[in-house]
Amino acid sequence: MSDQLTIRRPDDWHLHLRDGAMLQGVLPETTRHFARAIIMPNLVPPVVTLADARAYHGRIMAALPPGAEFEPLMTLYLTENTDPGDVAAAHASGLVKAVKLYPAGATTNSASGVSNLDAVRPVLERMAEIGLPLCVHGEVTDPSVDIFDREAVFIDRVLDPLRRAVPGLRVVMEHITTADGVEYARSGGDDLGATITTHHLMINRNHMLVGGIRPHYYCLPVVKRARHQRALRAAATSGEARFFLGTDSAPHNDPAKESACGCAGVFSATNTMSCLAYVFEEEGALERLEAFASLNGPAFYGLPPNEARITMTRGQPVDYPAKIETGAGPVTVFDPGHPLLWAVSDAPV
Ligand code: DOR
Ligand code: ZN
User: Fold this and answer.
1) Rounded-to-integer distance, Cα 253 and Cα 327, Å
2) In principle, which of 108, 136, 238, 293 could form an S-S bond with 10, CB 3.0–4.6 Å?
3) Atom 4 of ligand 1 has which residue's CA nearest to it?
């Protein structure tokens, strides 16, 4: 087996960068390896309009480490007041690559999300016309639905009816966590994609809950049973074009995570590529890592793959920090629970 792997530079199709001191602290962790990322709009207040997206894009560019080559792909946060005209202008500007649907109350900073899908129908119809993808946080918020079932119920109650109601709408099922998500993604044509996070490939709910509760493994959608993890691994390593990497790397400082009511989010930007190489090697699919991390995402979004390459080398355990220090406090890096042997040995600055 070769101990070197050269692939096109990867992109992250679902990333939280936050703002201010946190943005400044976490951005280098992504730009070190990734060329582009779809930037989530769940700031406080959220990124709702083209003007908001332009301003946020400017703040990200201003925070780039010297020499970094990185393109933030902006998104708009869909609300019941979103103007279809503004969405079309955002698409035409080239700056905004997707609109994000958060069911109201589903996750961090989702209070301005959508409760009534009929209210956003004109926006969705315009998006279908112009080919702008909708990125979907796929969980129902109905309190009577068990948190481990919220993705599967969302598919039946919300996603499938929505896709039937707005034919032609390009949809990304964000961070799928279940075999049901994998199966539904496979039922679609090339108008349906799905991102999978690094951590959902690495851990299941036993890792989070057995032998003590591990708050740094808590995220939304929450990690599920091992059989779902196996389905996600099979999907990610299949090479199928509909599945691509979205880390959902979502920094919260340690006090916010290590709390009686801790925030949801796993911060994996720092060691994602090493984790992925571990998973793909274990699945005997290293030759398909490039499809998942570097080819399938751009193809779905109609963008060219990156020309630059990174080289990964298998050797001594990779040295990466357990935490990064930011001006907004320490942020714990995702702990895969064992050494990682694949390092990114060579990447453009
Ligand atoms: O774990 C998560 N963290 N899931 C989300 O959907 C949001 C994210 C965040 O913004 O912290
Ligand atoms: Zn997210």
Assistant:
1) 10
2) 293
3) 220
